[in-house]
Write a structure and sequence with these properties.
Elements: H1 3-28, H2 36-47, H3 52-62, H4 66-75, E1 87-92, H5 95-99, H6 102-113, E2 126-131, E3 143-145, E4 148-150, H7 155-166, E5 185-187, H8 200-208, H9 210-220, H10 232-240, E6 248-253, H11 262-269, H12 271-285, E7 289-294, H13 302-314, E8 331-336, H14 346-353, E9 377-381, H15 382-391, E10 410-417, E11 423-428, H16 433-439, E12 445-450, E13 456-459, E14 477-482, H17 487-501, H18 507-525, H19 530-546, H20 550-554, H21 557-566, H22 583-598
Parallel strand pairs: 1-2, 5-11, 6-7, 6-9, 7-8, 10-14
Antiparallel strand pairs: 1-3, 3-4, 10-11, 12-13, 12-14
The structure holds flavin mononucleotide and iron/sulfur cluster.
């Protein structure tokens, strides 16, 4: 056979296997356009990429415009139209990974595998890239290999990975120990000490009835743990009160805030409580449909989550006529993300659940009145659902005896950075920053970053402040930095995070986050001229006022805080600097998406 017919045969075989795999994907996801993203995630996992021909086939089969499918592949970081490599490695580049010398290890990995960062190896075997925090700051540096996380990278592990790759060892045959993560719970409290057995809280809610259950939740004064602190009972009441054919419950397990990992541990250790919170919510608002939106980086949690869901169905805690109550029907489906921090924002998350790009919606209407497929939808954080369930369980009423006037109960913190005991800590709201630092065993602490890059940077003068909605609110990330750290480098890492994670939909954020990063890079490395500071302030005001969603509005806060607190660290710099900013390049993604949207050339 000549080379030409050889390659034709190969192409035909490849096309046949695509066709089989895509048929599988279509059947698995009931050929529903709302599952388009889930299908693409499945195909990406099966083939390592989603070739254009396959994108066209999926579009045809789902009767969607090809531009819709192309838009999804372009938008989500972990989807790719090109073959990148049989082994795709994404190294977490959170500041806490950097502090553990992730850069040297990455260089070492690249060298040993003879590959450059961001460029597929010629033989299409390996691809190495950096990615935002993967939720393992307690055991960094860490990476993902074909979606599965590997913690605690060191030289020995790097050698092991290189040898497994070069010997073409299938990922399923890699030693399990490489993928083992620990839950590192350092301090338990009201929630983590839970001894309620699965179904107990739900039975209690059913026993006292819907109205009394809502009143109980109201009395507890539980507020959402995802960051904004919206009263949970109020959210459920709004949703219940919106008449509609269907209501929906969504658990936000996108946990993308750099430095946080408490939802990861809850999903593994207290999955029953989360399902129970969702099911109680479904009962109270009258929902039959539920989703867990699980970030791509937590793929390794999926099999156990599916098993727990099945156990719940087997015990009639999910499904039809739950616990024998005619008309109480509810089930939960898990949807995976595909690498987009913005999908943690509730309206972007709903877009993503509907199989679209995760672009935040205009609000109002809020999800409680128009959410998933326009049905009234409750979106709550993982920890919120777990807490709600616990409130209906044994000693649930002790919840509101803890905390402060406006912040009842406890809060889970993910503590990382310069501490000998990184991990999960549960504290009652009202604890001081100093008390948290002490409990973590950290010494010589210079400053902390509470609530991720969009949160608060607190230096020693502020360690008496308290953790609560009245003072320092947080979604859970608590990163500790000692006096040897350069705060400018840390802030630079955060500006890079926002520039990478801006979804590109609106100009103030898309361009602003890039400029912010470049300008801050200039002043932190080459020195600051008065005009640089003016430019930064102007830019930050603009982003704050005109960005479409919370990401762009808060992306500049870290720079403002950093300049206020560490301006003495800045050297004087040249006034004639202009950004190495390529407007065309910055607009190219948006243009591509627009072309994709309109089908224009
Ligand atoms: C950019 C951005 C990212 C967010 N990421 C998350 C997230 O990963 N998890 C989460 O629960 N909430 C996240 N939120 C908040 C959600 O929009 C929403 O307020 C929350 O899920 C509501 O749940 P709660 O009331 O239980 O806090 C994010 C918000 C923004 C603006
Ligand atoms: S503010 Fe940023 S993340 Fe939000 S919609 Fe605009 S570009 Fe996207």
């Amino acid at each position: 056979m000549d080379t030409n017919s050889d390659s034709n045969l190969l192409k035909a075989l490849e096309a046949e296997s695509w066709s089989l795999i895509s048929d599988n994907a279509l059947n698995r996801f009931q050929r529903s356009p709302h599952h388009a993203l889930q299908m693409l995630i499945y195909l990406q996992a099966a083939l390592g990429y989603i070739p254009p021909a396959l994108q066209r086939q999926i579009a045809r089969d789902l009767q969607l415009p090809i531009t819709h499918i192309q838009g999804l592949v372009a938008f989500y970081f972990f989807l790719s139209a090109e073959k990148l490599g049989t082994y795709r490695i994404y190294i977490s580049n959170n500041i806490t990974d950097k502090m553990l010398d992730a850069a040297t290890l990455t260089e070492c990995l690249c060298q040993q595998l003879n590959v450059s960062l961001g460029c597929p190896r010629e033989d299409e075997k390996v691809y190495i890239e950096q990615t935002s925090c993967i939720g393992l700051s307690d055991q960094g540096p860490s990476c993902l290999i074909n979606g599965l996380s590997i913690p605690s990278l060191n030289e020995e592990r790097i050698r092991q990975i290189v040898s497994l790759i070069e010997s073409d060892t299938e990922l399923s045959l890699w030693p399990k120990s490489l993928f083992e993560t620990s839950d590192s719970i350092q301090r338990k409290g009201w929630l983590l000490d839970n001894t309620t057995s699965p179904g107990e809280s739900l039975r209690q809610a059913l026993k006292i009835g819907d109205e009394k259950s809502l009143a109980l939740l109201e009395k507890s004064a539980l507020r959402g743990r995802g960051g904004a602190g919206f009263p949970t009972a109020k959210k459920w009441r709004f949703c219940k009160g919106t008449p509609a054919e269907k209501h929906v419950v969504v658990c936000n397990a996108d946990e993308g805030e750099p430095g946080t990992f408490k939802d990861r541990v809850l999903l593994r250790q207290h999955c029953d409580l989360i399902l129970e919170g969702m099911t109680i919510c479904a009962r109270l608002i009258g929902a039959e449909l539920g989703f867990i939106y699980l970030r791509a980086e937590y793929l390794n949690l999926l099999p156990d989550l599916e098993k727990t869901l099945q156990k719940w169905r087997d015990n009639n805690l999910l499904g039809q006529a739950i616990l024998g109550n005619e008309g109480f029907n509810f089930d939960i489906e898990i949807h995976l993300g595909a690498g987009a921090y913005i999908c943690g924002e509730e309206s972007a998350l709903i877009e993503s659940l509907e199989g679209k790009r995760g672009i935040p919606r205009n609000r109002p209407p809020f999800p409680v009145s128009e959410g998933y497929l326009s049905y009234p939808t409750v979106v709550n954080n993982v920890e919120t659902f777990a807490m709600a369930a616990r409130i209906f369980g044994k000693e649930g009423d002790s919840f509101s005896q803890l905390g402060t006037e406006q912040s009842k109960g406890t809060k889970l913190l993910s503590i990382s950075g310069d501490t000998p005991k990184p991990g999960i800590y549960e504290f009652p709201w009202g604890v001081t920053i100093q008390e948290i630092i002490l409990a973590s065993g950290a010494k010589n602490t210079y400053f902390v970053q509470v609530g991720g890059p969009a949160g608060e940077l607190l230096d020693q003068s502020q360690f008496k402040r308290t953790l609560c909605y009245e003072d320092v609110a947080t979604g859970g990330s608590f990163m500790i930095f000692n006096a040897e750290r350069n705060p400018l480098e840390i802030i630079l890492n955060f500006t890079q995070f926002f520039a990478h994670e801006s979804c590109g939909f609106c100009t103030p954020c898309r361009v602003g986050t890039q400029l912010n990063h470049q300008l801050f890079e200039k002043i932190s490395t080459q020195g600051a001229a008065p005009s640089d500071i003016e430019k930064l302030e102007e830019l930050n005001l603009l982003m704050d006022r005109f960005s479409h969603c919370g990401l762009g509005k808060t992306a500049s806060h870290i720079v403002k805080q950093g300049l206020a607190q560490f301006h003495k660290k800045l050297k004087p710099g040249d006034d004639n600097w202009s950004p190495d900013f390529d407007l065309d390049k910055s607009l190219s993604t948006a243009r591509k998406l627009r072309i994709i949207d309109t089908g224009a050339n």
